[in-house]
Specification:
The protein is built from 4 helices and 9 strands; from the N terminus they run ββαββαβαβββαβ. With 248 residues, the protein is α/β, with parallel strands linked by helices. It has one domain: Rossmann fold (3-Layer(aba) Sandwich). The longest helix has 17 residues. It is globular, with a radius of gyration of 17 Å. InterPro entries: Isochorismatase-like_dom (IPR000868), Isochorismatase-like_hydrls (IPR050272), Isochorismatase-like_sf (IPR036380). One of its GO terms (molecular function) is hydrolase activity.
C-alpha cells in the first residue's frame, strides 16, 4: 500500500485505486475473508476479532436483506489519538458507537458488515498488528470482510452479500479513499446509498504541488460529501437516528 500525503499522520488506506473500480469478484480470494463473529482466532488476536484469510462463513446472509450498515475500516489505527489517528478520532468514534447501537437495537436490524482494511508489512493496519483490530467487535450474525483496496467491493465477496436493491448506510474511513470509492461503486450497482455526516473522516492533506500548504481534514470531508451528493448519495445527520434504520 502507498503512504498518504498527510499532514498529521500516515494513512492506513490504499491509495492506488480510483472510485470507479469494479464492483466485486465472483468468489473468495486469498486476500479476503467473510466471517461471522467469534470464529477461531490466531495467536495474539482478540477472540472477538475474526482472523485474516479465514475463508467464508457457514452463515449465509439473507438475499432478502433490504438495509445494510456498512462500517468501513473502523480500526484501532484510524481511531488512535492524532497524529496516528485522524484529527477528529475522538468525536467520530463517539458517533460511530451511537450509530452501531441504534442499528443493533432496530427491529428488524440491518445487515451489519464490518469491513477491515489489511495493509502491507510494516503498515499500522498490517494483519494482526494492534492497529488492524476492529474497534467494535462484531456480534453473532454480523459479518467481517477483509479488503486490500479502497473500494470494498473490489476483490471481495461484498457484492454477493449485498443485494443490488438494498439500501446501504455507510460510515467509517477514509472519506477521500474508501468512503468515496465504495459509495461510488454502490451507486453504480444500483444501491441507494446513505452517508452520515460526522460519521466519516480523513487526515489533513499536505498540498505538495501547491507550496506545501495544508488542506484541513474537515474541508476534504465537506468536498467529498458534496461530490458524492451530486452523484446520488443521500447525506444524513446524526439527528436522523434512529429513523435511519426504521422501515420507511
Amino acid at each position: 500500500m502507498y503512504p498518504s500525503t498527510s499532514a498529521t499522520g500516515s494513512s492506513t488506506e490504499n491509495h492506488d485505486e480510483t472510485s470507479s473500480s469494479s464492483s466485486s469478484s465472483s468468489g473468495s480470494t486469498p486476500n479476503e475473508s467473510i466471517s461471522s463473529s467469534t470464529p477461531a482466532t490466531s495467536p495474539g488476536t482478540s477472540p472477538n476479532t475474526p482472523p485474516f484469510g479465514d475463508g467464508d462463513s457457514e452463515i449465509t446472509p439473507s438475499p432478502l436483506a433490504h438495509r445494510v450498515l456498512l462500517l468501513l475500516d473502523i480500526q484501532v489505527a484510524m481511531l488512535s489519538p492524532p497524529p496516528i489517528g485522524v484529527p477528529a478520532s475522538l468525536q467520530v468514534k463517539e458517533k460511530l458507537a451511537i450509530i452501531l447501537e441504534h442499528a443493533r437495537a432496530a427491529n428488524p436490524p440491518p445487515l451489519i458488515i464490518h469491513v477491515r482494511n489489511s495493509g502491507d508489512v510494516g503498515d499500522a493496519d498490517e494483519p494482526f498488528a494492534p492497529g488492524w483490530q476492529l474497534i467494535f467487535p462484531p456480534l453473532p450474525g454480523e459479518l467481517t470482510i477483509d479488503k486490500r483496496k479502497n473500494n470494498a467491493f473490489a476483490g471481495t465477496r461484498l457484492g454477493s452479500v449485498i443485494p443490488t436493491d438494498a439500501e446501504i448506510v455507510v460510515a467509517g474511513f477514509q472519506t477521500d479513499y474508501s468512503i468515496r470509492a465504495t459509495c461510488s461503486t454502490a451507486l453504480e450497482r444500483g444501491n441507494e446509498v446513505l452517508l452520515i455526516r460526522g460519521a466519516h473522516a480523513t487526515y489533513d492533506r499536505i498540498e505538495v504541488l501547491h507550496g506545501g500548504g495544508i488542506t484541513p481534514a474537515w474541508r476534504i470531508e465537506s468536498e467529498i460529501e458534496a461530490e458524492l451528493e451530486e452523484a446520488g448519495v443521500h447525506l444524513l445527520d446524526m439527528k436522523d437516528l434512529p429513523g435511519i434504520f426504521m422501515d420507511r
